[in-house]
Amino acid sequence: MKMNQFAIYENNFETKVAELKSLKFLPKKWEELSECELFFYFLSKCFPEVKSISAVKRKIKALRANETQDVLEYLEESNTLSTENFYHIALQLLGFLEEVDYKVNEISQAFEKINLPRIEKTGDLSKEELIEAWYLLLITHNKTGLMLIDFLASKGYFKDFDHEIALFFNGKAMSVFETTSLIREVVYVETDVDTDEDGLADLVKVEIVRPRAKGKIPALFTASPYNQGINPEANDKKLHDVNVSIERKIPNELRYEEIQYVAEEKTLPKKREISSYTSEADETFTREANYSLNDFFLSRGFAAVYATGIGGMESEGIMTCASVKQTHSMQAVVEWLAGNRVAFTNREDRVAIRADWCNGHIAMTGKSYLGTLATAVATTGVKGLDLIISEAAISNWYQYYRDNGLVIAPGGFQGEDCDVLAELTFSRMIQAGDYLHSKAQFDRKQAEMKELQDRKFGNYNTFWDERNYLPNVKNIQCDVVIVHGLNDWNVKPRHAWQLWCALKENSSVKSRIILHQGEHIYINNNRSLDFSDMMNALFSEKLYGVKNQANEQLPNVIWQENTQAEVWHTFSDWTSEKETRVYPNQTILGETSSNEEKSFHDGISEEKKKKFVRSRNSFSREIIKENTQDLAESRLYLQTKELNEELLLSGTPVVKLRVKSSKNIGLISVRLVDVGRAKRLQETPSVLSGKIDRGYGFREEILKEIQQGAETNEKMITIGHMNLQNRKNAWKNDELVADEYVELAIEMQPTIYRLPKGRRLALVIYATDIDYTLQGNEEVSYTVDFARTSLSLPIIKNKSVTGD
After folding, report:
1. Which of 455, 606, 719, 744 is least enclosed, having the fewest CB within 10 Å?
2. Whole-model pTM above 0.70?
3. pLDDT (tens digit, 9 = 90+) per residue, 453-478?
4. Candidate list 295, 488, 533, 771, residue with the active-site label
5. Domains in the chain, start-ordered, CATH in brackets?
6. Helix 83-93 crosses helix 127-138 at what angle (to 10 degrees)?
7. Which residues contact 664 (CB under 8 A, 6 or more apart)?
8. 368 is a catalytic site residue
9. Known catalytic residue at 484
10. 162 an active-site residue?
């Protein structure tokens, strides 16, 4: 078990004393107490669930001070407090178990092993040192990944405080606000779009959950097309047939300017006349489709706001899947929260309501489509938006459903496309009466989307350019936190990499990135990383104005180590220092090129294909094996000798190929593989014992951790695909003649990956990818000329195990 805390901020002693007093953890005349008396006072505050001093003493007596004494005996019999005994007691307060997590005579070693912070001191503690040590302990993570002060809050420490005023400690908002009497209200924000074409601006339903506060509070807005429900049956019926071959494309000299999306001149739809104003909502609800990170902040004085946007149940409009109009509908919610737009209490009475409870500072949160819309709204430069968490988010929808001229499925969702996702999220369908009036228009829009998205040829076009946020990153005015899994094969790592690179060109914002080893997951319930604390520090600074230097002190890049569980490193940037080129031949990746040629055949038996289709990811597991019977003829497998030194890859590996197809169509897929028997991290987090509390008497979150699994022989590092007719770019069609060589460069998904000494690196070259590409299963032969083929590896040189 290892803890990694980055959101700890060093204050001077006077500030620490003042903050401890504000939390009622330090008596006014603390100088008059002895060290043991002061420590007893601290300990007495750790059991808010009991009232009497007798009960408190019983709780303290249950703690062990050293090999022979419990804590009560030790404090009654001693005149001094040793550092070793303090930290032995601290381990117990943090929930660690003797003989399970530590040994009583190895306290310092336990702190080092678990990676817990402590003051640098040996011998006895002075009162001032005790205060320093106690302050640090309160912000130290316990065994379930909560700061000790947050754990005490979940037991009721703040129950007698003022529940309507925000309180901060070490630059982070404390869990003070009541969650038993949250305000739940619904408003309908008027947008600037008319997607249902009724002549009126579309209204979108917004659900607000907020604590009762004496002053104005900030808002955490989650834009979720799933929020009001989904249509899984309709989605499944809409899935596209993938048992089709790639199409021959007519060569052209198309330029980007010819397919570039140009925003329509805005003709604003008619707005509703306001009949009156009110400060009271007309509608409430019992339970929102919540995001647990937002739950964490409700008790800390932040509102949680949810909206599905156009096409959502009880909203107006049509679900358009990632269009500019969808972005504008979510932008409108931010504008209302910031006081710059109208909302109504319902869709009929034209009674306007203001967000007069909001201080005008907003952050956007959420994963996948939710984080994607946060990125999209940020690129509008909307006022009031101070920070977004772009978590597992799409930055360019073409690279979600297409890649280099190919139709590509997001991992696990073969046959899905923009129109399918629109079908899934058009929750107006759930209400039969509403759907009665919107179905015909929605069906028309779906037919139009199906045509424009172009599954036949898979090229980048105006439809996809509209859904590419990267050209507009220059407009972002808020700070950005990118969170992404390096094993996320749904929203692949390229989305985070390209957003990160684009943000470097925008000097007006601060960006940082957290890269974990998981798949398409949230990490706010991860035990080994203080993600929620880091977001707390940033939200407190950006939305409440707390001067905690979070934006300057938090690392630019945090990367989860791939060779050990629960280890996180920091870097100044996600980039490579150099590139190393290796040359493949029939069996190895060598340092010199070979003049040999080698062929493989696409197309497998229908029986084998059905087996791979039935079992998700079985193709991905089989294609990277060193020895495979089912796919041996369908690939080239090349590998290095055992590495004589460690390699740390950082950036985008590039495969340059000279290849020919036996037909005038073709595609190439490549995978880079870590080879060698070893225990590797699992991509799916394991559920741990214990839960994370999200407030006093409020919801709980399941605790998870990415852990080491059983030994495996290999693991895919990264992947890439390309249509042989899109060698230069995704919108221009190149000529392809059967049995004539062409040259191409495939940029694989970017990564940071450590290859230990003694491992081997393999490159797998093949064509049809059952898990991602169309499954035409044609008999096509491919030949690779190794004389003009190479692999460029992005390398960080001379990096220590701990990074920067």
Report:
1. 606
2. yes
3. 999 999 999 999 999 999 999 999 99
4. 488
5. 13-164 (no CATH), 578-795 (2.60.120.260)
6. 20
7. 248, 736, 737, 738
8. yes
9. no
10. no
